[in-house]
Specification:
Belongs to the KDELC family. Helices cover 27% and strands 21% of the residues. It is of the alpha/beta class. Helix 5 packs across helix 6. Bound molecules: 2-acetamido-2-deoxy-beta-D-glucopyranose (2 copies).
Amino acid sequence: MNLLSVAFIFHILIDRTLPLTEVSAELSKVWGPGLAPDKIIMPARYFFIQVVNAANNNITTPLTEPFQVVIDGATKTKKPCRLWTAMLDRRDGSYIVRYKMYEPCVYMKISVVHENKHVAQSPYIINNVVYPEDCMCPKKNFNEVTSSWDCGLVPSEITKRLNVFNKIHWDEYRDKLIKTFDRPHAVSLCHYVVKNNEIYRKCYGKYVGFNMFMDNILLSLARKVELPDLEFFVNLGDWPLSLYNLPEKFPILSWCVSTDSYDIVMPTYDITESTLENMGRVMLDMLSVQGNVEASWEDRIPKLFWRGRDSNRHRLNLIQISRKYPELFNVSLTNFFFYRDEEHIYGPKSDYVSFFNFFDYKYQLAIDGTVAPYRMPYLLAGGSLVFKPESKYLEHFYSDLIPNVHYIPVKEDLSDLVDKLKWAIDNDDAAKEIAKAGQKFANQYLLPKNIFCYHMQLFDELSKRVVSTVTVGEGMEHVAQTKIQKCDCDDRIKDEL
Ligand SMILES: *[C@@H]1O[C@H](CO)[C@@H](O)[C@H](O)[C@H]1NC(C)=O
Ligand SMILES: *[C@@H]1O[C@H](CO)[C@@H](O)[C@H](O)[C@H]1NC(C)=O
């Protein structure tokens, strides 16, 4: 045996004994829109870290020795940039880093270090000025923005719903639409016009406070990109408006649509607001829900957990079923309003449980309330297995979800829920795989970047179909940018700095 082969055998022996839990800084992966903060401007920037060992396998347990992430840079007056950085531990060997900026920053650098070694391609040096989200620096070229954000193809739901209309001539629709839906006690609706990147609206109805959600996303987009001139109507209520049985179809934007309406679906005000207020006013968003879950799949209690109010008869039905199978369920109503006179049967109502603690349990139920359950994105992101009753109501992403791949479908009356729960308990590996696929879906399609992209693509596609001239209508209110800082929008770093 020659020396070389001795060395070779020795090498294999050493390789075999490599501890598989030892982190390889080099092989670990770092990715996400927060690494391109000069191009992708969001209220909170974020990126991911996946820990990988020396054999190039993912490590799936939390690290004992955490990463050090340092994000820094200088202001134009050469002071350190004010930034707030936070790390979320997903407890599965992966991490989310998010950060918020308060002022424009040059020479920005993102370092991810583990035990004194740079991870992946760290440090990441940003070669342009990086702006906070409240700078009014709209880029001129809409397509350049969607492509630098890597928005991908136009979501199929946008195309499908807009194709019903083909060309939209508002001069023909406008008055009829207002006349049909001007029912102040039943309908809340706003008419919007975007002209020269300024926003105008006029609302109809008694309860129009929710227009702030539409205002906020439009204002935020108008700071990033020059929006196409646009005219549209937004339904502020829960129920879709443009029902099949009306004599005419109307292109109305809604947060929830149904299989028997022509409304054009957009992300719910809930997920849109949590996108805009990430690291801000909201506690629950698509990232926080992943970093505040305590238990890994194996440690979660194998029961279906649910809390919510009595906004749907099927929810009462759920309570009924659970009483026959206490070993399978931990469910209760938190509030009686719609069926107050049945509280003595379906009560008592239970104490508040933090949404993050829902994921102490393996199984979740996305059951309709008045319409689709707006918690669905968060349920998927939490990594438990989601059971979803059939329903005619749809959020913007439902048509991309695949039953038995991303979630378990059940009948609307819940008659097969017990059997399917038993199946999940008996087939834990398969159940875990579906839960993980659901979480992966949420991370691919429902994060803040995706919510921004969906809106940009929706407005772009809509504008391509509107053939009437866009003018600011009589009595429309100007929705002004508030809380913006003054920024010099030239993002090239100048030499004298
Ligand atoms: C390792 O992790 C990455 C990032 O989370 C993921 O895309 C990939 O599928 C994982 N690989 C395996 C073999 O699980
Ligand atoms: C149901 O869940 C709540 C919240 O996690 C918990 O406090 C309670 O003990 C559970 N009930 C049962 C019967 O396990």
